[in-house]
Amino acid sequence: MLESAEDLKPVWTIRLAGRVGDQDVKGITALVDRMHAEELSLLLVDAREVSFPDASIRKALGDMTANRETTGRDRTVGVAIITGSTLISGAVRAILWFIPDTDMVKVVMNVGSALDHLEDRAPGALTAQIRERIGERFAQPMVQGVAAS
Hints:
This protein is an alpha/beta fold. The protein has helices at about 20-35, 55-70, 85-95, 110-120, 130-140, and strands at about 1-10, 10-20, 40-50, 75-80, 105-110. The longest helix is centred in the middle third of the chain and has 18 residues, at about 55-70.
């Protein structure tokens, strides 16, 4: 399941839950393409409720990342990925092999650390209101019965 939002620009958010499928990859790709058209963007991905993606999905995400890495480099200045799983963290790190500037991407365990990374990448871009709204949004689980951390 994919949930994305563009209402807190320059922060774009993606939340994933359950098994990531081909439609989710298409949704992520479309969001990233729109994001790269902006002057400045920061991406926050919440993968705390996602199950480990199969090899075809990991390859599709890696290909999407590699194909868009140069077009977004000067516009997307920071990416934070929240995960509570070392397995998901490892999969993300494998995908990051396709990104030369891995300092722009950070895998973290909570929303506060994600927002701190994005603020470090674009000082002053996150207003108190944006931080508060993201905190509220990400405090709610996407899947009934699954608590967000």
